[in-house]
Amino acid sequence: MGTGQSSSSPVVGVDLGGTKISAAVVSRAGKILGRARKRTKAHLGAAEVLARISLAVRQAAEDAETPMAKVAAVGIGAPGPLDPSSGVLLSAPNLPGWHDVPLAREISEALGIPVYVENDVNLGTLSEHVLGAGRGTKDMVGVFVGTGVGGGLILDGRLRSGARHAAGEIGHMVVAAGGPYCGCGRQGCLEAVASRTAMERDLRAGIAAGRESLLPELAGPRLKRLTSSVLARAWKGGCPLTREVVGRAQWYLGLHAASIVNLLDPEMLVYGGGMTEAMGEEFLAPIREVALQHLMPKDSAPIRLAAAKLGDDAGVLGAALLAQQRSTTE
Amino acid sequence: MGTGQSSSSPVVGVDLGGTKISAAVVSRAGKILGRARKRTKAHLGAAEVLARISLAVRQAAEDAETPMAKVAAVGIGAPGPLDPSSGVLLSAPNLPGWHDVPLAREISEALGIPVYVENDVNLGTLSEHVLGAGRGTKDMVGVFVGTGVGGGLILDGRLRSGARHAAGEIGHMVVAAGGPYCGCGRQGCLEAVASRTAMERDLRAGIAAGRESLLPELAGPRLKRLTSSVLARAWKGGCPLTREVVGRAQWYLGLHAASIVNLLDPEMLVYGGGMTEAMGEEFLAPIREVALQHLMPKDSAPIRLAAAKLGDDAGVLGAALLAQQRSTTE
After folding, report:
1. How many domains does chain B have?
2. The domain that contains B322 carries what CATH number?
3. Out of B170, B184, B259, whose CB is closest to A174?
4. Is residue B5 a part of any domain in this protein?
5. Which of B172, B177, B267 sits opposite A252 (nearest CB)?
6. Which residue of A has its CA nearest to B251?
7. Nearest CA in chain B to A160
8. pLDDT per residue over A39-68, tens digit each?
């Protein structure tokens, strides 16, 4: 540990997304002391994005009135696949041209402090486990429904990385063998039937075929903004097409939840992402109902399905927890 | 530990099935020193079956020329659901009328030594991990395809029981949402599309509809004995219906394997049960091929799918390992 730092020194958590970089200085108790946010500008190339990450960390430290010398470590959540032990980002769907970028080493050299990297959805799961909806559980699975469906696993209190650092790709569990094609090129993945992208595909097809819907009114005639909150408003307004399409996604999510429970038997599943944030318990209740119907054995105790609590902060808080955990154990 | 026993004392493993009880005296090194086998005679009631279990243990000890006083502990693998911590069998599909039977306590009182109970498929997985195909792995999933589809999980070197003692019910992961009905009452479970029972359903329907098949010749006109080995012979003989039906089951098993890997990312999946034993690598190869096509991320290292090695002994060996592990840690 460098000069000026102690075991109570704050850390900085960074959430590296395809459109924005969020950074937050976080106390050991999990309190956010300062923030910064910058556009990613991925089209300018890796070197520019790396510089913007370092800048975001410095600005967050300034916002928290914390000298950089007092920051113990930086954690970065990035879209995978990546290697958490070396801190190398192998590739990233949202960061075109990124291949084998030594993210941890580059930022560590720029800032002069230890940097740790982990999959962003894993970190969202970690923060919900330590600070959010999953507090107090030993085993928890995070399910994030948005453009895709991502997830993370906490087993026996620890984030599971897996033999090839590939655990938690729950959006590519197959629930509808031979079903709709997925962005990954295969058929019937959960993501192909239950992500917002999948719902959007079905909603557009329905509207193109003349089905009754509130969506043209809410999202404009070309349906430009079929965001989670627009879907939530259509659902609340009773749009028959939206009710059908969202309901089907919820059914698949319920079957998927049951599959996870029948395999792993965790204490809790925590749901986050745009759809859960926009619809809340109304998104979760039908998923829970289907899942509980499909648990084995039939007369066993139910398990808990709950909404995530940390919202947008799950990413930076999870990255900060990573920095805390790894800087004290390595 | 009682008189006459030491840390090198052998243990007895018992495999309690619906039709037979197998017992084996097993050395600390995993060598079988003596055996006994008895019919279960479940129709005579729980008290009679309990007496037959104790008798099988005593006969195995006699066969091994090991005095009962030298036996350190007994492990019993039983069909679930059961509570491994209390040793109570909650119910058992193959043992009619068994409800809340304190199996561990009853046998322990009859024999005067510690008795431990665990799910039989979990124990098959444990023995393959310690002594069979999964030796040397840290994480392994066992998949047993027979009348049903059962499984077990080894994570970080330990058998996973789960928050409700229900982990490993992999036959009830949903792979074909809305598909064929399962014995559990729901639709599209792996067991409903890939167990021998599911294959048998489809084969009988095909033959009833006049499809070309070698099965009437191999299994008799009423298809009385559609066992795994009959299916294997029809498959090897090129029976077009059998190739189609077994091939479809293999495809579902491949998708299921990929789902498990995309969630958990273990090092290895080990396949056992009647179909694997009868067809060997010919059963496994298509499953492996489909699974590897569906791994995330696409360019990641492949994982291993291998055939179980211990055959019928997996049950008694797993039960003996349970007795070894729990009698030295409790």
Report:
1. 2
2. 3.30.420.40
3. B259
4. no
5. B177
6. A177
7. B264
8. 999 999 999 999 999 999 999 999 999 999
